[in-house]
Amino acid sequence: MAKPxxxxxxxxxxxLGVLIHYCMEIYRPELKGDWYKTKRVRTEIAPETLDPKKxxxxxxxxxxxxxxxxxxxxxxxHCTGFSLWNTAVNDFSIAHTKWRGGGGDICREFVDxxxxxGIRPGFYYSTGCNGYYxxxxxxxxxxxxxxxxxxxxxxxxxxxxxxxxxxxxxxIWFDGGIVPxxxxxxxxxxxxxxxxxRAICFQGPRGYANNIRWVGNEDGLAPENCWGSTVAPEGxxxxxxxxxxxxxxxxxxxxxxxxxxxxxxxGGWAWRAGEEHLLYTPEQLxxxxxxxxxxxxxxxxGMAIGVDGDFQDEEQLRAFGKLLKExxxxxxxSADHPILTEGRCALNFSETRPVRYAVIREEIAxxxxxxxxxxxxxxxxxxxSGCVGHKRIVPLGDLAARELAFEITAxxxxxxxxxxAAY
Length: 423
Prior knowledge:
alpha/beta, TIM Barrel, Jelly Rolls, eight-stranded parallel beta barrel, four-stranded antiparallel sheet, 18 strands, 20% helix, 24% strand, globular
């Protein structure tokens, strides 16, 4: 049975993070197509022309804190190849803009603000696309060509800067995965093991112990049964996004989604003026939380930063955080490490009460052992499914009951329930 590492267990308990997008294509929204993945970026968004007067990484982190995020990933280098730190590899970076009078380092201020707020920091770095070097992952490449190998050297040099100059990182994000070194891609696993051996890696090198996986969409939506383990043995079916209880690797899913709908600029990941009506409502975000965190995944919520450097949707995150606390802040009843009788435990109320949600957490240090369960209200089955894992939130609609019970119907080994609660 695949088992999580200590670092993966910590990541699972944090549940909610943010992905902060300050992407240079927002300065030229009128340009169409993949221009930002070409060398046109050198002139279309020349660093010396940028002057984001309201850019304050501490404000970004305050917004993350308002929603209740426990970790934050900064897009340090997106598809344009523009770096948010003072890289020594090239001059296409924030240090060559007018911000902070030149020489500024967003990554440094972001990490410092995270640590001050008790939020764990991480970095996103695009290895597949880099407009500054003319690398577009939508095109076919000879990865072993001299041109691509020169690019690979720059990637290795820049991630070394990110992984050595800012202390311990919590999560490292590889969008779309990494071309493996045997095919000509950057050899990043030795660098990870040397400089950031405890970091969680989104779509990291195969075999890296602290990997997590993409759920398969950008909608904040996990499948109803989303197992933490993946890569099933030959002959066992595994649907995309679901993983497999028989999987050989423990690589739990992370659900990413923008804070603006996909109808917005850049699919919602990038800011554009006049699109405030395309924000997700707090109720929509709560639904995504229930269908991601509540389905044994983590939720990573995007933050689209504006051209002036300000995160203008802070009230949206604040309202969502408030709704989360109102919904799951205080249970009607709960049982911590309940003793199961024939695989069953129950919560009893003094009178018939409306119950909106049942929440179950399994002790998963030894693997995800629950393979089937059901929820009963006053002895009547109201829900059945397979996976519990780190957390399962079961919406119960307008249910009213005097007793709510949880019963394991199938298991591998002897599972332990961490807690069972009604809200």
